[in-house]
Amino acid sequence: MIAMTIDLNNAQYYFNRELSWLKFNLRVLKEGGVKTTPLMERLKFVAISASNLDEFFMVRVAGLYNQFENGINKKDGAGLSVEDQLNSISRYSHTQMRLKYRFFFSLLKELKNYGINFSLVKDVDAGGREWLEKYYRDFVYPVLTPMAVDAARPFPFLANKTLNLAVELNNIQGEHSLGFVQVPSVLPRIIKVENSTEVKYIFLEDLIMRHCQDLFKGCEILDVVPFRITRDSDLDVDEEDTEDLLQEIEKSLRKRKRGAAVRLEIFETKNKNIKDFLIENLDLGKRDVYELKGPLDLTCLFKFVSLPGMEKWQYPPFVPQRPAEMPDYEDIFEQIKAGDILLHHPYESFDPVVKLVSDAAMDPDVLAIKQTLYRVSGNSPIVAALAKAA
After folding, report:
1. What pTM did the predictor assign?
2. What mean pLDDT, rounded, does the chain reach?
3. Domains and CATH numbers, the chain
4. Quick one: which of 151, 155, 157 has its CA closest to 176?
C-alpha cells in the first residue's frame, strides 16, 4: 500500500471564511422561495437574510477594511489576500442583494392574491390620501429634521443603519445645494392606509418624499433619493491590558456609533450628483455602493409579518413543553442535586433556566453566577436577575 502525502498548506483544500458565510446567508435567503413554506414565513426569511448581511458588513467586512488600511494584505488559508476578499465579497453581495429583491417583489405579487397591496402614495385612492395627509401632519411632520449642506454647514453625521433621503435642490438664493432628511425610526416604516377601499400599505419614506417641498420652503426640489449607510461596528476591546473592562467597553460602544462607513445602499438613480457626493463624503469606493431597485432596509418586514391578521400565513405558534424530569420548578437546586438535567431548547421550556438564575440571584449562599450570554433580548429576565444579583 502506497501512503499518499497531502500538503495541508495547499490553498485548494480551503474555502475562505467570509465567502463561506455569504453562501450560508444565500441558503437562508433561498428559504424565501420555498413555495410550501407559509407566505409570511418566507417574507421573514428575506428579512433575516437582510439583517444577517447588515451584521456581516458591520463586523466582518469592517474588520477586513481595518486590516487593509493598516497595511495588512496577507493571504488566508484559501490563498486570498485581504483585498481579494473585499473584491469577492462585493461581487457575491451585489448578486445576493439583487436576488433578495427578486424574492421580495415575487412575494409582494403573492400578497396581492390575498388582497394585500403595497402601493405608492400617488396610487392610493382619494379617501386613503386624505387619511395619509392627516397622518403626516399629526405624526410624521413633527419628528422630521431637515438638514442643509453648504459652505457654512458641513456634511452631517448620519447614524449607522438609518434610512435617509438625499434632497437635491436650488436654495432661496438660487444656488445648487443638497439637503438630508432622516426617516424617523420612532414611526412604523410600513403604514397601513386607512379610509381606503382596498387594503393598502405604503412605505414611510414615500410619504415624506411627497412632502419635501414643505421641509425646504422657498427652494426648488430637483430630486430626492433614499439611501442608507452601514458603519464599522466591530467592538475593539483589549481585555488583557485594560484596568477597567466596563469602562473600556463603554468607550468602545460610543466609538462604535461613529464608525467609518463600509457600505452605501442607495435607491437606483441616474443622479450622479447625489451619488458622487455621498461616495466622496463617506470615503467609499465603487465596490461599496449598492444600487437597489426597491425599498431599502428590508428588515422592516419583521414588524410587518407580526401585524395583527397575518397569523393565517404563518406557522402556528410553537409552545415548548415542560421538561419531564422537572414536574415543577419549586426547588431547582434540590432537583439538580438529585442528578444532572439535560434541557433541549427550544422544544423544552426555558423557564427552568430563568428560575435557576433568578433563585441564584436572591440566594445569600450563592457566591457567583457564571454563564455565557449570547444575543439576549431587550427585556431579558436573565439580565434583570444578574443586575439584581450585582
Report:
1. 0.85
2. 90
3. 13-114+298-316 (1.20.58.310), 121-234+253-284 (3.30.1840.10), 332-389 (no CATH)
4. 151
